[in-house]
Amino acid sequence: MIRAVTITSLLALLMLVLYLPSAYPAQAFLAQIRAEHAQHRAFWGETHALRMLETLFVLQAASPRQAPLMPAPEAGRPPVDSAVHGEVGAIGGRLAGSAYLRSLNALVLLATYRLAVLACLLPATALFLALAIADGMIRRAVKSKEFIAHRPELFALGMCGTIMSTCAAVMACVVPAALPPLLLPSMPLTSGALINLALANYHKK
Fold it and tell me: What's the rounded Cα separation, in Å, for the pair 113 and 60?
């Protein structure tokens, strides 16, 4: 069951990421970034909103730059070889300038911005996740000492819920739609609660 949920969730995520650039222009993703920055500035304050933008720039600077599709023609290369390289380079340039790839790059930028928002809220969410994992392990240990039976159906429910909530969080990062300011930080908290449920009912054979 867990494997089926994992495969289904990943396939749905892949299909969504490949579909959205064909359904929305690049301007839609960029406009969503501007709208969300204004929303975060009103909700979290100017300082936190600027920190989110700074984190976006850091993540953008850390991302690897795209390699050229074809190397530049070398001196002394045969004319036919140079012509082939020039033609392939022109095709690569047209592909790189296509509307789909521009929308895909804008989608990646929107996802990076929303990841930057999560990164700025990471201290609080990371603390909750750590406490949820520790509590789940302690509950499991207490059940073992008291000879209380673990419930595998709750373990499966917790694991499936964790996988689905994680995929839902990734989907929320790429959808060019308005999101409530508390939606993104609430998703790691939901995953933490489900991980707690899974760990507390994990039975090691």
Answer: 9
